[in-house]
Specification:
It is a single chain. α2 crosses α3 and α7 runs antiparallel to α8. The longest helix is centred in the middle third of the chain and has 25 residues. The two termini are 36 Å apart. The chain has 436 residues and is α/β, with parallel strands linked by helices. α1 links the parallel β7 and β8. The protein is 24% helix and 21% strand.
Length: 436
């Protein structure tokens, strides 16, 4: 069996390893690392075995049996943890609703995502393996989000995370506050914003009743309405609402609407979540917190605090972090957790917020978010402790496939910036360029 070793002290953290086949037919054993499973205590000298894109074994090296045919990778002195989950990203250049109306639940962000966008490789360089890609927040409801795995992809379909029926999974993006306040037909006040949402949701309930009253008779069915179908997916619990909201009063408005209509919701940003932490906890609603936003540039973020995550977590709220990339560069996602720890959040809870908490918010915690037998083999190899500013992501794996390797010059460029790091393709300038 081939034994591969990280070259300690190299700025590129070189790894000499054979390419993994697309089907990940040969087992891989990562041997000797500090392993952080998230749902169990860290293992000082641990081994993780991956087979067929799934985690086959994880535990102390002395007790984990490595398959005879496995590719052994020596990761002594390194740290392995689950791939990071970003519950709120705008990578890929996707746009949602337009200026024709403030509520557009028929719009799908997946129809405008460029899988070749350089931002995806920057995500992998930051250790991200799963994203909730959202349309923007300039509408009360800007469209359907999509949950994706950062596999190597040529078309968007290869990114999809599908449910048991084979349907691409995603949520619904909503927003309140100043973002959605504009000239008509958009609302001009917070009160009108809530009224428009309430009116549209009531209309959807009426649409559902007409379908039920038809009793399967196609001649009695109402004319198909894609907007109403989108909202009914929310009201029927098939889509989680991911709700942009900053101020405490806006947060409470979302909680009132959620209680009235019974939809599942995750509160995003929550710059003033610390003001109403007990109310959020009582409602049983999770929060996806942005740690680095734009105070001074966005008036609603003026009162954001580094200890918001700690305050919410202490109150009993499920807390995750997100990048809102490009607001926070995906390559720096680990620092969000580090800053939350600086604000008083326990380290284990901060790491949980980067992984399992996000998995729960997008209803994928049975498949991702921790290093457990049977889960998808989404993992990252780090040069040191996760929350150290000196730590680098050395490798990123999605379902057992290596999608980022800092020792590869092309990947290294995406990790550190520099010319070409934001270019998804090279302009053809002369014959023979491919050969060069």
């Amino acid at each position: 069996m081939a034994l591969h070793r990280f070259v300690v002290g190299s700025s590129l953290a070189l790894v000499f390893s054979a390419a993994i086949s697309p089907a990940q037919e040969r087992p891989i054993a990562f041997v000797g690392a500090k392993v952080i499973p998230i749902t169990a205590p860290p293992i000082t000298d641990g081994t993780v075995v991956v087979r067929g894109g799934k985690i086959a074994a994880v535990g102390p090296s002395a007790s984990v049996e490595v398959p005879a045919d496995a590719e052994r990778i020596d990761v002594r002195g390194k740290v392995i943890m689950p791939g990071l989950i970003d519950t709120h990203s705008h990578v890929g250049g996707g746009w949602g609703a337009d200026g024709s109306a403030p509520i557009q639940p028929d719009v799908r962000v997946l129809d405008s995502i460029n899988v070749r966008d350089a931002g995806f490789q920057k995500c992998r360089a930051g250790g991200l393996t799963t994203l909730n890609i959202m349309p923007g927040s300039g509408h009360l409801l800007s469209g359907q989000t999509v949950y994706v795995k950062l596999r190597k992809a040529n078309v968007i379909e290869e990114f999809f995370i599908r449910d048991d029926r084979g349907v691409p999974m995603g949520g619904m993006k909503m927003a309140n506050g100043t973002n959605s306040q504009r000239e008509p037909p958009f609302p001009g006040t917070r009160s009108k914003s809530a009224a428009l949402i309430r009116q549209k949701f009531v209309k959807a309930l009426d649409y559902r009743k007409k379908i039920q009253d038809a009793g399967g008779d196609s001649t009695k069915l109402p004319e198909r309405d894609l907007e109403m179908e989108g909202i009914l997916e929310v009201l029927d619990g098939k889509r989680v609402v991911h709700h942009h909201t900053h101020r405490a009063d806006d947060i409470m408005t979302v909680l009132r609407l959620q209680k009235e209509f019974g939809f599942k919701v995750v509160l995003h940003h929550v710059s003033e979540g610390w003001r109403v932490a007990d109310e959020i906890a009582k409602a049983g609603v999770p929060c996806s917190v942005i740690v680095v936003d734009s105070p001074g540039g966005k008036i609603e973020a003026m009162n954001m605090r580094y200890d918001t995550g700690a305050i919410l977590d202490k109150a009993g709220v499920l807390v995750a972090f997100h990048t809102d990339d490009w607001i926070t560069d995906s390559r720096l996602f680990l620092r969000s957790a580090a800053l939350a720890v600086r604000g008083g959040m326990p380290e284990d809870r901060a790491l949980y917020a980067l992984t399992m908490a996000g998995a729960k918010m997008i209803e994928l915690d049975k498949r991702i978010g921790s290093l457990e037998v049977g889960k998808d083999a989404d993992l990252i190899v780090l040069s040191g402790e996760p929350l150290s500013v000196y730590t680098k992501v050395l490798q990123t794996y999605v379902e057992g496939q290596k999608v980022f390797d800092r020792s590869d010059p092309k990947d290294y460029l995406f990790a550190v910036g520099g010319y070409g790091a934001s270019r998804d393709q090279v302009v053809h300038a002369c014959c023979g360029e491919e050969d060069r």
